[in-house]
Amino acid sequence: MDRDTFIEIFQVILRNPLRTFMASVGVGWGIMMLIVMVGAGNGLENGVRSDMRNRAFNSLYMWSMSTTKAYKGFQPGRRFELTNEDVAYLKDNVPEMAVISPRNQLGGYRGSNNVSRGSKTGAFNVYGDCPQYRFIEPVPITEGRYLNETDMAEFRKICIIGEQVKKVLFEEGEDPIGQHIQLHGINFKVAGVFGTTRSGEDGIEATQTIYIPFSTFQKAFNYGNIIGWLSMLSRDDVDVRDLEAKVLRILKERKSVHPDDRRAFGYYNMAESTEEIQLVFGAFDIVGFGVGTLVLLAGIIVIINIMLITVNERTREFGVRRALGAQPKSIIGQVVSETLLLTIVSGFSGMMVGVVLLELVSYAIGEGSDAPFQNPEISLSIILLALGVMILFGAIAGLLPAFRAVAVRPVEALRS
Question: Where are the domains of the chain?
Answer without folding.
Answer: 3-52+275-415, 59-269
